[in-house]
Amino acid sequence: MNHEPATHMSRTFAVGQLPSGGSIDVVEHTYRGADGPTVSVIAGQHGIELNGPAVARRLGDRLSTMSIAGTVRVLPVANPPAMDHRSYMGPAAYDVVNPNLNRVWPGDLDGTLTERIAARLWERLTDSDAIVDLHSGTPEMLPHVRYCDDGTNADRLATAFGVTHLLVDEPPKSDSTRTTLRNAASQAEIPALTVELANSREVATAAVAAGLDGVTNVLKTIGVIEGEPAEAPAQWVLRDDIPAVCLSNAGLFEPASDVDVGDRVDRGSVLGTVHNPETFELVETVTADQSGIVYSLSRGGANAAGERVVSLASPVSLPDTEQD
User: Of 237, 220, 249, 223, nearest to 309 (Cα)?
Assistant: First the structure.
């Protein structure tokens, strides 16, 4: 595959309209070299997940100095209303029905505001040979890459990204709509990764560096960038098939001191406790209904009944050092 110095172009296109008549615009950067595949990198679906846009900027700087084959499309802020309002989802005042952009793909041009944003973005993504969707998890979430076991080469790209933990999902149902970008891409037979970097709500240097290196590894694996990707670490492959652990009672949740993200826990293990903060009464001991790996754990808080506090995944394959 031939590689040529990348040329950079940017354009702005409308994805929605404000009540005042103003346009909601998204900026798209494209880096083109010799003939080759098209890879789309999208960030900022959720307005407080800041490491993705930070990775996108550094990726643009890197590509501008390189020879590449194909096209890299970068959408650094996919959801301007959410970022402008410094919120996870779009403002409810704009769309109370569908405020979460990453739940309405592939969108609807005649739908609610968020559905229309997704549909306009989807028009830009359907020619992709691969999609990398950058997110940032909370401090309680294990950094990981998520993909569908769908017969595309998403598993290969997820491995190449180079993080320690991978989460694999079953392929989405063929008739499923209003779903994640990852699932919509899978239905369109486009390999897609959902990358959960560390530390949402802040730009974290280590998380940004990991994200930039990961996207670079994916581009090398596809052949857009010359060279071999970095050797992947020993990886845990997990399946998110265990129901979330939710509270039966309201109160002050405190996680168990000996449980952390990445830990393996057995069925019946104590994950935390819930106390009445006024009377000091123990109202619930939270335990694991199934054995699994903790990939998300609340650090504690004033919780309502029914709130999720722990997420577990079952192991598909583990590093040799972690095998029983």
Answer: 249
CATH topology for 241-314?
OB fold (Dihydrolipoamide Acetyltransferase, E2P) (2.40.50)
CB contact at 8 A, 295 and 283: no
| Residue 105 DSSP one-character state | B
Cα first-last separation, the chain:
44
Look at residues 38, 66, 41 and name the one whose alpha carbon lies nearest to residue 52.
41
Q: What angle do CA 321, 198, 30 make, to 5 degrees?
A: 115
What are 266-282's pLDDT values in tens digits?
999 999 999 999 999 99
Euclidean distance between CA atoms 209 and 204, whole angstroms:
9
Cα Rg of the chain, angstroms = 21
What is the C-alpha separation between 296 and 144, in angstroms, rounded? 11
CA distance 39 to 127: 9
pTM: 0.95
Bond before 172 cis per omega within 30 degrees: no
For residue 139, what pLDDT band results from cuts at 50, 70 and 90?
A: confident
Q: Map out the domains of the chain as residue ranges.
A: 4-233, 241-314
Distance CA 193, CA 145 (A): 6
What lies within 8 Å, CB to CB, of 307 at 6+ separation is: 246, 247
Q: Is the sign of the CA dihedral 37, 118, 79, 206 positive or negative?
A: negative
| Residue 79 structure tokens | 């959801």
CATH topology of domain 4-233: Aminopeptidase (3.40.630)
Q: Is 202 helix (H, G, I), strand (E, B) or coil?
A: coil
